[in-house]
Amino acid sequence: MKNFWIILSISFMLLVANANADVRFGVSAAYTQVEADGTETEGGEKNSASVSNDVVIPSIFVELSGERFSLGLDYIPLDADVSNKTKKRTDTETSVTGTTTQTSTSRTQQAQAEISDHFTLYATMALTDTFYLKGGMAQFTLNTEESLGTGSKYGNVDVDGFVYGFGFTDGNSRLELAYTDYEDISVSSSVARTGVTTNNSISADLDTLSLKYSYAF
Fold this sequence. Notes:
Layout: H1 2-16, E1 22-42, E2 45-65, E3 69-76, E4 80-81, E5 87-93, E6 105-126, E7 131-148, E8 157-169, E9 173-182, E10 185-188, E11 201-216
Antiparallel strand pairs: 1-2, 1-11, 2-3, 3-6, 4-6, 5-6, 6-7, 7-8, 8-9, 9-11, 10-11
């Protein structure tokens, strides 16, 4: 997060120093496909799953625009679920270390993840009067929302990513297609499963593809 804000501050100072830069504000709505793959490791056991969600995400932005280049900061004021439904499964443990008889214990595992405080620092370069390329850095907080029978508890984590896209504009309105590739996510539980000495962990990969309409005032 520290590097993100350093880059943001330097970039804005450079554009502000350009007397030809205009400050613009705007609103956006993006139809976004969220795709995620994750694996939870509990002792020597691994459980993997893939989830997805299609959602319309609004955002607001401020932008400094020059003749061909612009720099902007986009913020999503709402939270979004990674999956379109809560993942749920029931595990049955048929033996426990240290017991002399066979036991049977059922544990219900429920998990969901939520994206919040999503910022994108981006730059655009106009190739023609209407067509432009876009690149940038994104960051959000991943809130883990789990109810695990194993007793595991996971905290929240900040995730960075890179944005690549292109779009068309008539000056005020624009339509763009953008892909965001987020870094690999790794989270360890604060509580280990009963009978396991090492804390459980989750590794995940998250990507989004969005079609966004924006209007700059």
